[in-house]
TrEMBL record:
Protein name per the record: Ribosome-binding ATPase YchF
A cellular-component GO term for this protein: cytoplasm
Entries under Gene3D superfamilies matching the protein: 3.10.20.30, P-loop containing nucleotide triphosphate hydrolases, TGS-like domain
SUPFAM superfamilies: P-loop containing nucleoside triphosphate hydrolases, TGS-like
GO molecular function annotation: ATP binding; ATP hydrolysis activity; GTP binding; metal ion binding; ribosomal large subunit binding
Occurrences of domain TGS (ranges): 279-362
Similarity-based family: Belongs to the TRAFAC class OBG-HflX-like GTPase superfamily. OBG GTPase family. YchF/OLA1 subfamily.
Keywords: ATP-binding, Magnesium, Metal-binding, Nucleotide-binding
Positions of ATP binding: N11, V12, G13, K14, S15, T16
Cofactor: Mg(2+)
Role: ATPase that binds to both the 70S ribosome and the 50S ribosomal subunit in a nucleotide-independent manner.
One Pfam family this sequence matches: MMR_HSR1
Length: 364
């Protein structure tokens, strides 16, 4: 599956956030219990209001959301790139995730110690990013030497890889994260395989005190400014509130949120933002039995989407009966969409669009 790693300095509220995520997941439909793969790894359902709309139209007996994984990655301190704290373990864990959710402490609380004795989320972000850049630089420099030999002896692939590594190293030495490197379309996959920590997309989570959950505060405003300048996303959440909300039942939850000026749990925004960060979109299969949401990466074609449901579907793919979400809703379901000429038969090259309602035809 697709994984978001939760990182941040100690005591910024990572565990609080992860606990909220896992408790919410535990409270979700009984047939889809929260599954802990390891104590710090959890699957959560991706909230999507479109599922209820589709299920109502089709009279589906059951709604099955799609899911993504969050990993709580502890152990990041200044010096992690040199093995301080849980240094090496931390770096190995973060290498395995597809995107990074970076929690920043934007709350004041004299009772909670800050590792660097100051509340400055922008400086914290720099501390963390610096460690990650140093680790990337170190890992690239290790790989460059042996590669140079191969490149000098004329191996084409080695030459190309070396060029990619060299331009990334140059950027890192200027103090810039690897995600800013300009890539040709051919370089995208080799770059991903380098598994660089600062090559992964980032979302900042501003953890504010309870009273600022709806409005944010001056610290989160600074983070948002920084994120914007970097081209990264950011959201404001009170992790404490989320932890409380996660323990309430559905009815209590809405009242509690309304009293705080919130329309929905911050976790919903976080999960959706994480999904987006991973470059994922959703398609649906809808029928009387179930309304099922499925995940593909943006740009996936019909057979790949079919393969998410079953590998046989991908091999034997013929066509996908496809109705755009808006057309399905506007015409009150499949029959109406057919009549309105909004029912399409899509072949192997079709690029799946977010919200597509699909039914696959395949050979067995
Ligand atoms: P981690 O080390 O980043 O995993 O941080 P924790 O989630 O364990 O939080 C560290 C401490 O900060 C705990 O005592 C939390 O209860 C507290 N904390 C987390 N979020 C908030 C918050 O929004 N407001 C306040 N006042 N305390 C918080």
């Amino acid at each position: 599956g697709f994984k978001c790693g939760i990182v941040g300095l100690p005591n910024v509220g990572k565990s609080t956030l992860f606990n909220a995520l896992t408790q919410t997941a535990a409270a979700q439909a009984a047939n889809y219990p929260f599954c802990t793969i390891e104590p710090n790894v959890g699957d959560v359902a991706v909230p999507d209001e479109r599922m209820e709309v589709l299920a109502k139209i089709a009279g589906s007996a059951e709604i099955i959301p799609t899911r993504i994984t969050f990993v709580d990655i502890a152990g990041l301190v200044r010096g992690a790139s040199k093995g301080e704290g849980l240094g090496n373990q931390f770096l190995a864990n973060i290498r395995e995730v597809d995107a990074i959710v970076h929690v920043l402490r934007c709350f004041e609380d004299g009772d909670v110690t800050h590792v660097e004795n100051r509340i400055d989320p922008v400086a914290d972000a720099e501390t963390v990013e610096t460690e990650l850049m140093l680790a990337d630089l170190d890992s690239l420099e290790r790989r460059i030497k042996p590669l140079e030999k191969k490149a000098n002896s004329g191996e084409k692939e080695a030459k190309e890889q070396l060029a990619l590594m060299m331009k990334t190293v140059t950027l890192l030495r200027e103090g810039k994260p690897a995600r800013l490197v300009e890539l040709t379309p051919e370089e995208k996959e080799p770059f991903r395989q380098l598994q660089l920590l600062t090559g992964k997309p980032v979302l900042y989570v501003c953890n504010v005190e309870e009273g600022s959950a709806a409005s944010g505060n001056s610290l989160s405003a600074k983070v948002q400014e920084m994120a914007k300048a970097q081209g990264n996303g950011s959201i404001v959440i009170s992790n404490r509130i989320e932890e409380e909300v996660a323990q309430l039942d559905a009815a209590e939850r809405m009242d509690f949120l309304a009293a705080l000026g919130l329309e929905e749990p911050g976790l919903n925004r976080l999960i959706r933002a994480g999904y987006d960060l991973l470059g994922l979109i959703t398609f649906f299969t809808v029928g009387p039995k179930e309304c099922h949401a499925w995940t593909v990466t943006k740009g996936s074609r019909g057979p790949q989407a079919a393969g998410v449901i079953h590998t046989d579907f991908e091999k034997g793919y013929i066509r996908a009966e496809t109705i755009a979400y808006a057309d399905y809703v506007a015409n009150k379901g499949e029959a109406g969409a057919r009549e309105a000429g909004k029912f399409r038969l899509e072949g192997k090259d079709y690029v799946v669009q977010d919200g597509d309602v699909m039914h696959f035809r395949f050979n067995t």
